[in-house]
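User: I'm curious whether this sequence folds into something compact or stays loose and floppy. Could you predict its structure so I can see for myself?
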Amino acid sequence: MRFTGRGDVFKILLHYLVLCLIISVSGIPFGWIGFHLRGSLLMMVSTAVVYAFTYGVAYLSSENNADELNQALKNKQSKS
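Assistant: Here's the prediction. I'll summarize afterward.
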């Protein structure tokens, strides 16, 4: 899970904005979010925090998997 260029950053930002839009539109009937600047900003910040946390966990998980695969390949190569 690595960034390979501006396209990846753009995709992540676009996904974040679409997610915020969906949460805002879906949350209005339930009273989660009103059309107040403060409420919208709070929702966007909390979404960004969850998004960053999830990305961090996924990154660490994929890094651990890569390390395990590399170690397994080294072990297999040394046995050959």
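Summary: Residues 37-79 form the longest helix (43 residues). The radius of gyration is 19 Å.
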